[in-house]
């Protein structure tokens, strides 16, 4: 996987993850189990992964809809759970200008034609010629259809993420050789066109004995020499591609010189045991018996850009480890010192390291996963709660009642008036707890007001009802109304009667001889119970809402009955109600072991079945001698003391059923 560090010094890392979700089973990835947390630990701006082992239908929201990241995938077209390459780019620091999959450019582009047939301004270039493709000896469509190469272009360089075929006991030697020849041809063509190239990935080939722990033993068993070892077909092509690669005899035609620089080996030329892959079948990683087959290679022209390169053998999560390369913040670009971040996004996005334009999905290449039909219209949860940007009315003037409203709007991207009206209406509903009294009294701009589907027409003579209440709108007035049942029409009258009852009770209490504290408390308790039982319930917590409505009622009867003692009683009732809800949803406290007088520990059933995921209690102390073993058995069986009787009854029923079954079997015989 290639990762790029936060553009202070751009870092690129590559990692064969052996399954895109495989790392989440290991430390430190299993703490959060999210891709953003993984990228934060890697500290990269560009992350390239190989061997994803998924198909397009397996792409999920948590893989694609990642805030602050864009992503590109090349996945196998036919084989399931096989190969696959993915590239993630951090939007804050870089953005590709082109992206495509495949080495030969024969796959169809998002616009339809194959990549190699697109206009020069829309393609990355460097595609092998017909003669070069014919010399490969492999079907071009088959070579590109396995999801083994992903190419993205930045203004600074062309990045190739590759997962080369492995040595499958000689069964696919022709395909493997054709792939590495096609890779060599594409890279040399791109460099010949004047483009900088970076190759990262799992190439499944080591350079020499220094990069393989078992090379010496294999040479002894097969009886080959060093010259024969480095001259195997795939290793010979690879060493001719590398600057300083050891080649036995004369170089092949067209490969007279190496064009890529091995960053990791260049910084540590004599380091032994610098392996990136370990065989899992023999548990070779603890003893560091592996090979170096994962690389970050850069063309010779940008060698001075690299500041450091290394492997991260301490990061678990796969049979491979990540490899990274750090790049300098300032580079030499066409003879001038330039910030690298200026060349990592389309022209004009960054100038002197300062962003000039924001990142948008519409500006990324069409091959981006976020522009797939499955995810094109999707939004992340963070974007759903973002503050809507209102459209500035250009035609508004400084005259009229709407002048102040339009002048205070922030200028933003254009949007339909109906959509803006919906955002404004939702904002009013969230901010208005009482209803539409506040919003209906304020004039709204015609451009910001959502048109009602069926306007309510009322005559001036019917503005007020007989009881003095204002007319109610037929639409939803607040967010609370969405979750509440339709209120009955006599609700107000019921509350008024209740308040009169409270007033009558208080008058009776005052008329009686100075009632003591006990009588007063009993009367207040009865009044409160009457209020709770008589008030209509409009929400699931009906008693609490009814008390609040009774307190907020503006009628004279209710105002006269709100004495300090009665208010304190109501608040006490509300507090008690809240405590009861908290007690209901809190996790029950584990009981004490009656033998050891210790708190039991909570366990969870992991065995598959009807009880999987259920919690139960178990003694924290091991089984020992107790004064009363029967008590231990009861708690261990029941788990919850209140269920002991039910569990015992269930056991009796099971025994009875088995006995009846046994008797029926004997009767048949």
TrEMBL record:
GO biological process, one term: base-excision repair
Biased composition (Polar residues): 491-514, 526-546
UniProt site (Interaction with DNA substrate): 320
UniProt key word Hydrolase: yes
Site keyed Transition state stabilizer: positions: 204
Low complexity composition bias: residue spans: 555-566
MF annotations from Gene Ontology: DNA-(apurinic or apyrimidinic site) endonuclease activity; double-stranded DNA 3'-5' DNA exonuclease activity; metal ion binding; phosphoric diester hydrolase activity
SUPFAM superfamilies, sorted: DNase I-like
Coiled-coil residue spans: none
Binding site for Mg(2+): 16, 51, 202, 204, 319-320
Cofactor or coenzyme needed: Mg(2+); Mn(2+)
Domain Endonuclease/exonuclease/phosphatase: 14-320
Pfam families: Exo_endo_phos (PF03372)
Record region (Disordered): 386-418, 434-566
Active-site residues, record numbering mapped to chain: 163, 202, 320
Co-factor note (free text): Probably binds two magnesium or manganese ions per subunit.
Keyword tags: Hydrolase, Magnesium, Manganese, Metal-binding
Site (Important for catalytic activity): 294
GO CC terms in record: nucleus
PANTHER family named in the record: AP ENDONUCLEASE (PTHR22748), DNA-(APURINIC OR APYRIMIDINIC SITE) ENDONUCLEASE 2 (PTHR22748:SF4)
Family: Belongs to the DNA repair enzymes AP/ExoA family.
Protein name: Endonuclease/exonuclease/phosphatase domain-containing protein
UniProt organism field: Salinomyces thailandicus
């Amino acid at each position: 996987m290639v990762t790029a560090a936060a553009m202070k010094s751009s870092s690129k890392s590559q990692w064969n993850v052996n399954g895109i979700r495989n790392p989440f089973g290991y430390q430190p990835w299993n703490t959060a189990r999210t891709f953003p947390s993984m990228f934060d630990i890697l500290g990269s701006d560009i992350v390239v992964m190989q061997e994803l082992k998924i198909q397009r239908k397996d792409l999920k929201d948590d893989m694609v809809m990642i805030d602050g990241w864009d992503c590109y995938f090349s996945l196998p077209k036919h084989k399931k759970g096989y190969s696959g390459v993915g590239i993630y780019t951090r939007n804050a620091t870089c953005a590709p200008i082109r992206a495509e999959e495949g080495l030969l450019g024969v796959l169809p582009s998002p616009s339809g034609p194959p990549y190699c047939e697109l206009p020069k301004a829309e393609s990355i270039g460097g595609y092998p010629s017909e003669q070069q493709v014919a010399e490969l000896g492999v079907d071009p469509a088959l070579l590109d259809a396995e999801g083994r190469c992903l190419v993205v272009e930045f203004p600074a360089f062309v990045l190739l993420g590759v997962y080369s075929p492995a040595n499958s006991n000689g069964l696919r030697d022709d395909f493997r050789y054709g792939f590495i020849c096609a890779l060599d041809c594409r890279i040399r063509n791109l460099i010949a066109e004047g483009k900088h190239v970076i190759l990262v990935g799992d190439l499944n080939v080591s350079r020499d004995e220094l990069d393989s722990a078992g090379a010496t033993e294999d040479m002894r068993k097969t009886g080959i020499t060093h010259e024969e070892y480095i001259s195997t077909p795939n290793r010979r092509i690879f060493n001719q591609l590398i600057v300083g690669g050891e080649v036995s005899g004369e170089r092949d035609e067209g490969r007279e010189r190496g064009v890529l620089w091995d960053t990791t080996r260049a910084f540590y030329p004599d380091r032994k045991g610098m392996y990136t892959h370990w065989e899992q079948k023999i548990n070779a990683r603890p003893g560091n018996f592996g090979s170096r087959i994962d690389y970050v290679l850069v063309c010779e022209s940008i060698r001075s850009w690299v500041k450091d390169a290394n492997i991260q053998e301490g990061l678990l999560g796969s049979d491979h480890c990540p490899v990274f390369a750090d790049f300098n913040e300032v580079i030499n670009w066409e003879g001038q010192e330039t910030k690298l971040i200026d060349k990592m996004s389309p022209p004009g996005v960054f100038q002197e390291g300062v962003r000039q334009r924001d990142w948008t999905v519409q500006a990324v290449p069409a091959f981006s996963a976020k522009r797939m039909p499955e995810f094109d219209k999707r939004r992340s949860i963070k974007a759903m709660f973002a503050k809507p940007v209102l459209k500035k009315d250009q035609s508004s003037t400084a005259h009229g009642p709407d002048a102040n409203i339009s002048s205070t709007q922030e200028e933003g991207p254009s949007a339909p008036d109906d959509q803006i009206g919906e955002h404004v209406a939702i904002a009013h509903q969230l901010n208005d707890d009482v209803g539409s009294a506040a919003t209906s009294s304020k004039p709204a701009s015609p451009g910001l007001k959502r048109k009602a589907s069926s306007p309510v027409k009322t005559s001036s003579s019917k503005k007020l009802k007989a009881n003095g209440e204002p007319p109610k709108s037929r639409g939803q007035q607040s967010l609370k109304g969405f979750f509440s049942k339709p209120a009955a029409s006599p609700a107000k009258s019921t509350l008024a009667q209740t308040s009169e009852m409270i007033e009558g009770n208080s008058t009776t209490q005052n008329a009686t001889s100075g009632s003591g504290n006990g009588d007063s408390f009993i009367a207040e308790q009865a009044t409160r119970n009457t209020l709770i039982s008589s008030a209509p319930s409009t929400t699931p917590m009906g008693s609490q809402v009814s008390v609040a409505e009774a307190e907020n009622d503006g009628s004279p009867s209710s105002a006269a009955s709100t004495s300090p003692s009665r208010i304190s009683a109501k608040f006490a009732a509300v507090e008690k109600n809240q405590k009861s809800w908290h007690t209901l949803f809190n996790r029950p406290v584990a009981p004490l072991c009656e033998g050891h007088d210790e708190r039991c520990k909570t366990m969870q059933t992991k065995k598959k079945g009807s009880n999987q995921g259920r919690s139960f209690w178990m003694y924290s102390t091991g089984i020992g001698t107790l004064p009363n073993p029967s008590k231990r058995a009861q708690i261990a069986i029941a788990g919850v003391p209140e269920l002991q009787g039910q569990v015992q009854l269930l056991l009796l029923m099971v025994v009875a059923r088995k006995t009846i079954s046994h008797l029926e079997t004997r009767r048949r015989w």
